[in-house]
Amino acid sequence: MSGRARRSANTSRTGYSSDAASSDGGMAGSSKGRVVDKGSDEYKRRRERNNEAVKKSRSKAKERTSATQKRVDALQHENDQLSGRISILNKEFELLKEMYTAHAKITHPDQAIQLEEQLQQLTNYSYVKSEPSS
Fold first, then answer.
1. pTM, rounded to two decimals
2. Which residue from 18, 72, 80, 107 could staple onto 12, CB 3.0 to 4.6 Å apart?
């Protein structure tokens, strides 16, 4: 039994009295205003077309979701690789900084404090930031 048949004869889905709701008597309407009997071939054909359209729409949505997930996975992998590279570069930077400081202290002992200050300024403006210690 359809939802309309269960409702009172003069009440629409919203609960308000309506001539359209009571006069349809188990018939489905279309966007063009025509009334089609639910048992007719035209109604069945429309339902089949609608069902196919829904399947196609859902299939496309699943494909988009799958493609998006693949893209997310690829970007996550790339992000992991880049994070590893940043870590390696930070370690290399720290090593070079230590080597520079050691060399500066040996070759220019009178300027060691100035060179360390300059190196600290360089470190502060560097694009490669140290990772927070864990």
1. 0.50
2. 18
